[in-house]
Amino acid sequence: MNNRISLIGVPSDIGASDRGASMGPEALRVAGIVETLKKQGMEVTDTGNVTGPPNPELPPVNGYRHLEENTIWANNIQEAIYRELNAGNFPIMMGGDHAMSIGSIAAVARYCAENDRPICMLWIDAHADYNTNETSPSGNIHGMPVAVATGNGHPDLLAVGHAIPMIAPENVYQIAIRSVDKNEKKLVIKSGIIVYDMRRIDEIGIRQTMQEILHDVAEKGAHLHVSFDVDSLDPPIAPGVATTIPGGLTYREAQLCMEMIHDSGLMGSMDIAEINPALDTKNGTAKIAVDLTASLFGRQIFPTHSLYQGE
Ligand SMILES: [Mn+2]
User: Fold this and answer.
1) Catalytic residue among 97, 125, 184, 259
2) Domain containing 44: what range?
3) Protein residues placing their CB within 5 Å of the ion ligand 1
């Protein structure tokens, strides 16, 4: 794995209903993300924050809240992430509400297209984030990034990408899903994205889930973009998010997921989304996000093969 990491802050909450995710990048810095990654042997540069318009706190128009502001943020994010990828760095985007991923997927997809590399995305989230202006009950754009990435959305948002869709639906893998809006469900089923909802994870376990996904991504020879929404975690271990949904990933399930991603060597970029310090307790949610990031970058209890031979 590329060990030159660029941290990019996205202090925005314009895609969400609740204010506060805009403080997420600082929360991750305070929780020690730089030091933690350095301890894993990474060369880390904190590039600072992407800028964009402030949150106007307006109601939705035609089913979109803050379309214009979201589009500006997404384009600015796209430029920042693309610049880091082109410089040979591994970008970690520190959010920020999940609408920011429209920009990061656009950048990664563009970079992959220019380098003749397929792109796959692992979307770790309580929500499918597959709404459109017609299905979204709130008009919040942080519920729409996966739809936009796969070609469903407002032309201004689609235009952030180099092509429509930015990513083929069959290259999108979702895990930890447990809250999908009524009409959004129909779109998800029709879309062809690959969903491991919580029931499927209950039935086959996180180990088989990750084995299947990572096997697929390896076969495709793809760059893997990991988009980690901290609301994927069970609320008692990660209370600092706007939309807590019971029945999420346990601490150990999340750790194993991250450890297996690391072992695969496939990950080339990532987002950490939706940390909301205004709703958190003593920065605990940022701390667990940093802890899981350490596992993504190779922290282990023991070196895997020193105690047993993994299959
Ligand atoms: Mn999300």
Assistant:
1) 125
2) 4-302
3) 98, 125, 127, 129, 229
User: Is residue 309 in a domain?
Assistant: no
In the predicted model, is pLDDT for residue 311 greater than 60? no
Tokens of 307: 């105690």
pLDDT digit string, tens, across residues 187-246: 999 999 999 999 999 999 999 999 999 999 999 999 999 999 999 999 999 999 999 999
The separation between CA 85 and the C-alpha centre of its own chain, rounded to angstroms, equals: 17
Is residue 271 assigned to a domain? yes
User: pLDDT tens for residues 125-147?
Assistant: 999 999 999 999 999 999 999 99
CATH code where residue 249 lies: 3.40.800.10
Alpha carbons 265 and 182: distance in angstroms, whole number? 37
Tell which residue, 30, 11, 7, has the closest CA to residue 21: 11
Question: What's the total number of domains in the chain?
Answer: 1
Secondary structure class of 192 (helix, strand, coil): coil
CA dist., res. 106 & res. 79, Å (int): 9
